[in-house]
Model the fold of this input.
Amino acid sequence: MNYYYITGTSRGIGKAFAEHLLENPSNYVIGMSRQCSIEHSNYKHFYLDLTDVNAVTDFKFELHSHPQKIYLINNVGSLGFIKPIGKLDAATIIKNYTLNLIAPSLLTNAFIKTYNTTDAEKVIVNISSGAAKSPIDGWALYCSSKAGLDMFSRVIDAEQKVRANHPEDNIHKPFKIFSIAPGVVDTNMQMEIRSASKQDFSRLDDFIGYNLNNQLADTKTIAEKYFRILLNFDSLPNVSFSIKDYE
Ligand SMILES: NC(=O)c1ccc[n+]([C@@H]2O[C@H](COP(=O)([O-])OP(=O)(O)OC[C@H]3O[C@@H](n4cnc5c(N)ncnc54)[C@H](OP(=O)(O)O)[C@@H]3O)[C@@H](O)[C@H]2O)c1
Done:
């Protein structure tokens, strides 16, 4: 069996990932979010609030018998409040970095620790954003946490290559890791962006335009693209990229 741990499976891109994978009876999906909207014999849901560091630290990856593939997809991410720095309160800043960067770091650390000596295809996929590469006013926490996620992924990739040459680390098969941006996708996140105030977000009209001009991709298409690209992950030249690079 193939096992896929995915955060944020209750809606949006994460739900589309889970539904796409569940079309194949060899796949088993473990979803983590606060709500559950999938019922399937090969789906298990964990209630997990990713802003709660203690709950995330307590999460246990399972030991599966003879897995072929084990994936961790850190999909959850949020803009939080769209406002310039100086207008945010401290609690919002801490919560947003926890959700976008600390939670995926904790899960990735536990994932690598749990499956270090497991003989399977082991892949971590972080869901990034174009905002990791370009500053967007009102999105400081989001841009910087996604940039952090990209670099976190690149460092792990470098570590896996170095550690593969250390027999004392007892790595059976190194982990592959990618940080992949989806482009603009028709989800709740885009609705949140369109409801920002013009005063706090100079690019509001651009995002209203993406919706009016049907430039938002649908989640099913995006999920299919991710897994099509990941099918040949050994040939991918970079850790951090956008799926738009492969259209
Ligand atoms: N949509 C886009 O245009 C776009 C563009 C670039 C990058 N992305 C990235 O794509 C990823 C998915 O975004 P999306 O657009 O699909 O978002 P979305 O529709 O808003 O879905 C967010 C998912 O995250 C979960 N979530 C939110 N807060 C959570 C919490 N505290 N604990 C646990 N789960 C939580 C939600 O589940 P619950 O509410 O049930 O907990 C939901 O399943 C994000 O990383 C986002 O940054 C999206």
User: Anything to note?
Assistant: The helical segments are 12-21, 53-58, 90-115, 140-163, 188-194, 204-212, 219-230. The CA atoms of residues 61 and 111 lie 7 Å apart.
